[in-house]
Amino acid sequence: MIHFDNVTKVYPTQKRPALDGVSIDVDKGEFVFLVGPSGSGKSTFLRLVLKEEKPDKGRVHVAGKDLARLSNWKVPHLRRRIGCVFQDFRLLPNKNVFENVAFALEVIGKPRRFIRKVVPEVVELVGLEGKAGRMPGELSGGEQQRVAIARAFVNRPQILLADEPTGNIDPATSIGIMKVLDRINRTGTTVVMATHDAAIVDSMRKRVIELEEGLVVRDQTRGVYGQAY
Amino acid sequence: MRAQFVLSETWIGLRRNLTMTVAVITTVAISLALFGGGLLVNQQVSEMRNFWDSRITLTVYMCNDISPAEACQENGAATEEQRTELQGKLEGMSQVDNVEYMSAAEAWEDFQKRIGSTNEALANAAQEGDIPDNFRVQLTDPSHYNTVRDAVSGAPGVDSVSNDQSVLEDFFGLLDGLKWAALVVAGVQLAAAALLIGNTIRLSAYSRRRETGIMRLVGASNFYIQLPFLLEGAIAGFIGGLIASGFIVATRFTLLSRIEEWFQFDVAVDTSALLAVIGVSIILGVLLCTITSFLTLRRYLKI
Q1: What is the pLDDT of residues A40-57, one digit of tens each?
Q2: Which of A47, A107, B138, B275 has the most Cβ atoms closer than 10 angstroms to its Cβ?
Q3: Which residue numbers of B have CB closer than 8 Å to A's CBs?
Q4: Mind telling me which Gene3D superfamilies this protein's record contains (chain A) (predicted)?
Q5: Which residues from chain A sit within 8 angstroms of residue B214, using beta carbons?
Q6: Positive or negative CA dihedral for B207, B211, B216, B220?
Q7: What is the mean pLDDT of each run of 10 residues along chain B (303 residues)?
Q8: What confidence score (pLDDT) does residue B224 get?
Q9: pLDDT above 70: residue A228
Q10: Which positions ≥6 away from B46 have C-beta within 8 Å?
């Protein structure tokens, strides 16, 4: 599903590569934790998958597509197959829960009838039934992140990328978020989650890829966060 | 494609930057009004040139007993031979289309007829013989005016050659100057308008960066993301163009009508030409704004 072949990425302002000859394979339906200190290359990995950045060396394949050969005007179609969740939720404050989730479908031109049908289903999937009319400001951090996950998943992407989704949320609430991500993973969606949260990684016992200074230093199925941190 | 979504986003953009939108519309309106005004004056000038080119005649006045010119004072009134010779010479020139002789009596009658109704005092004061007999020379092409004039002025028996051409040229020169002044100012204004639009769209893109960021992430097409901004520019340009049309129509029916009345020309810029000028102005406004928006978005709206 995601295939990195000897990928190097150097940002123009920095000498040290953000990713240095990284080769990673993520299969369909996998749940992968991406761990490592800040600046280790986790975010760069996610940005490369979205084709927000281009690698300086090596090849990136996502959902069977070679991204180097994907023309710019086709990038939106790639992104429709990838859902994204961030630490800071990125909800629209002037739209309610339903509208925030529906926005993702509206802007890719889905018919209104379809939106009315699928949005409530996803809102229920993330555990927000009965709160579709609330504004983001009226929700707790955990609930807001659930809305963001619903928005990322409403178009049924093949891949869900999560960049520290529990970074702004207390540990008890984080467990709920992880349950939602696990539920999404069980539908067959590949989930890649970058995180600093050792407790979560340890409790989930999923595949762990550890990056350090742009290198893969550990790739473990059913791994833990690691001792060093 | 969901038109309602795009339109509501456009409306939000226009409303959020209301002051900038008003500034854009004003600048576009003024610049297009000047541009359209320039075009109208241009139309008017060429119409009038055509009108006059077919009518411009050379009048060669012959010496008579009261001619003040030096040559006439010395040699007295033109003789019959001199007249015949001059007529032959004129008719022999390839630039001359037609020569018509008008005796002093005919010239006086003609003068009475043309001036009598508007300026009776002048008509009454004039006597037969005050206007010398003359040749009305029709040219094949008005640009040969100087050649023909030089050939006959100074010929024996010739008092003077009228030069209404130079009067007209001064007038056309003035209109041409007006036209160019209007077009240059319009150009500067259009450049200012383009910068303003760029700035407005940049503000608009900035104030909606949350939305566009999400749209990008969930895979909205570039066109879909840009369309509200492009429409925002296009609508501002269109409204500016409409206001400019008002100015252009006003120009047509005040300034140009005055000119016509003043010179008693029967040459108006017709309605279809007026509509064409308005159409060109509005299209120019919409295109300018849309293209500027597009170029701005390429810089400030990362896809």
Answers
A1: 999 999 999 999 999 999
A2: A107
A3: 1-2, 5, 210-211, 213-222, 224-225, 303
A4: P-loop containing nucleotide triphosphate hydrolases
A5: 90, 92, 103-104, 107, 151
A6: negative
A7: 77 81 87 85 76 75 78 75 83 82 82 74 76 82 77 80 72 80 83 85 84 89 87 91 91 77 66 88 91 86 64
A8: 85
A9: no
A10: none
Residue A169's identity, in one-letter code, is I
Interacting residues of A45 by C-beta distance below 8 A, sequence separation 6+: A4, A19, A22, A24, A34, A194, A211
Is the CB of A84 less than 8 angstroms away from the CB of B215? no
Instruction: Give the integer Cα–Cα distance in Å for B204 and B206.
Output: 5
- Inspect the interface and report whether the beta carbons of A104 and B218 lie closer than 8 Å: yes
Chain B residues in contact with A79 (beta carbon < 8 A): 216-219
What is the C-alpha separation between A175 and A152, in angstroms, rounded? 19
Q: Do B219 and A108 touch (CB under 8 A)?
A: yes
**A106·B1 Cβ contact <8 A:** no
Query: Considering only CA atoms, which of A38, A4, A34, A35 is closest in space to residue A21?
Result: A4
What CATH superfamily classification does A1-80+156-228 receive? P-loop containing nucleotide triphosphate hydrolases (3.40.50.300)
Report which secondary-structure segment, H or E, holds A21: strand A19-26
Taking the model in full, what pTM does it have? 0.72
Q: Does A75 touch chain B (CB under 8 A)?
A: yes
Q: Using a CB–CB cutoff of 8 Å, tell me whether A104 touches chain B.
A: yes
pLDDT score of A111 more than 70: yes
Sequence ranges of chain A with CATH classification 3.40.50.300: 1-80+156-228
CB distance B133 to B104 below 8 Å: yes
Q: Chain B: give the shortest CA distance to residue A77, in Å.
A: 6
Q: Minimal Cα–Cα distance from A227 to chain B, Å?
A: 35
What local confidence, expressed as pLDDT, does residue A153 receive?
96
pLDDT of residue B263: 65
Query: Are residues A92 and B214, on separate chains, in Cβ contact within 8 Å?
Result: yes
Nearest CA in chain A to B215: A107
- The three-class DSSP label of residue B93 is coil
Q: Chain A: residue nearest B220 by CA? A: A108
pLDDT at A229: 47
Mean pLDDT of A186-193: 95
